[in-house]
Specification:
Length: 370
């Protein structure tokens, strides 16, 4: 038996998400996801805060253990990724990878030298689509992570479509140029990465690790999409739909993530099979109240609290009012997983982090009194 087949056997032999989760947490999440009101609004987030990690998991070097302790300590119901924040002394550190170079800036990794650096490299790019067996060790690992977060937090596995993977391999400037000067080759790269993502998604659909799958491909800026909606309908949404198909067929709901403005493409996302939107940046121009009014029975709204200004720089009173307003706009009738509008960024003061999640729990109890 191959290593992939053995990993598959182990991945498929474990208990369900419902079996490992606390009954109240599972009921809270699933009731809200079915557009009804549970005991309180579920909390969903991603935390990038060195001080918070040191508060709940001091000295812990295992990202899974550390992240689980943080999420349990903050009483966050859903987690979309395992992380270990950069310590203050990492600022400015550069790392040479096999294909690219990164630098820590603001305690976050940034690519400063891309794997693909020219039109010639785009044209010469060769990629292949792995077999499903190649992904089963990853699926098995995600089952272990899910169980490490249980019983108090649901870990949501995920991946990309391939579109972000394509432009992320060369940077937006070269990608945009290549759309005109080497379009067929860009499409070939997107298609290859997308087909690999679909094979991966099929494995997760079979594994049934939980009720949700997180798909992250950034396609928007503040105030507009990164590419025209017409171009996205040609080079992004068909691939997103292809990725969603095996997951939707398996009864798994797809939570789609892009930073930025999404108001003009929500119908496209729905038609692609998406049933949840994250992170709903308010400062990007998204009208969360309008989204709730129009799509309140079709889309789970995930996030919604500004992480770029309100959480890092707002007072406790302002943070509580921000939570209160989001609950007014989108909390009634379920369908809301409250959280930051992407992640808790390193600049967020520790007292503000505690105040935010306390407000989510206190003000988010049903029936809402906001």
């Amino acid at each position: 038996m191959s290593a992939g087949a053995e990993a598959k056997q182990r991945a498929l032999s474990g208990p369900s998400a419902e079996a490992v989760l606390d009954e109240r947490v599972h009921e809270r999440i699933m009731t809200a996801a079915q557009f009804a009101e549970p005991d309180q609004v579920p909390v969903w987030d991603f935390v990038d805060s060195w001080p918070i990690y040191q508060h709940f998991a001091p000295g812990e070097t295992d990202p899974v253990v550390a992240t689980a302790k943080v999420f349990h300590g903050l009483e966050i119901d859903l987690c979309r990724g395992v992380y270990l924040p950069q310590p203050p002394e990492a600022e400015g550190r550069e790392t040479d990878h096999e294909t690219h170079k990164t630098k820590v800036s603001g305690r976050t990794h940034w690519v400063v030298e891309y794997p693909i650096r020219s039109l010639e490299a785009i044209k010469a790019w060769k990629g292949s689509v792995p077999e499903q067996d190649d992904f089963w060790p990853e699926v098995e690992r995600d089952r272990q992570i899910r169980d490490a977060f249980a019983p108090r937090t649901l870990y949501v596995p995920g991946g990309g479509v391939g579109f972000h993977g394509a432009y992320g391999a060369m940077g937006l400037q070269l990608f945009s140029t290549a759309l005109y000067d080497a379009r067929d080759d860009v499409v070939r790269i997107i298609d290859t990465l997308s087909r690999a993502s679909c094979v991966r998604a099929s494995a997760y659909a079979e594994a049934q690790l939980g009720p949700f799958f997180f798909v992250g491909d950034d396609i928007a800026f503040k105030g507009r999409t990164m590419f025209s909606p017409a171009m996205l309908r040609e080079l992004f949404f068909p691939y997103l739909k292809r990725l969603c198909e095996p997951l939707v067929a398996a009864g798994i709901q797809v939570i789609f993530h892009t930073d930025g403005y999404i108001m003009e493409i929500v119908d496209d996302l729905l038609e692609s099979g998406v049933t949840g939107l994250n992170p709903l940046e308010p400062l990007a121009g998204n009208d969360i109240a309008a989204l709730k009014q129009r799509y309140g029975r079709d889309l789970i709204l995930v996030g919604g609290i500004d992480c770029s200004q309100l959480l890092p720089f707002g007072s406790v009173t302002e943070i509580r009012e921000g939570v209160r307003q989001l609950l007014r706009d989108a909390g009634r009738g379920g369908g809301l997983f409250i959280g930051s509008s992407s992640e808790i960024v390193p600049a967020t003061p520790v007292p503000s982090i505690f105040a935010f999640y306390e407000a989510c729990r206190e003000l988010g109890r049903y029936p809402l009194e906001v």
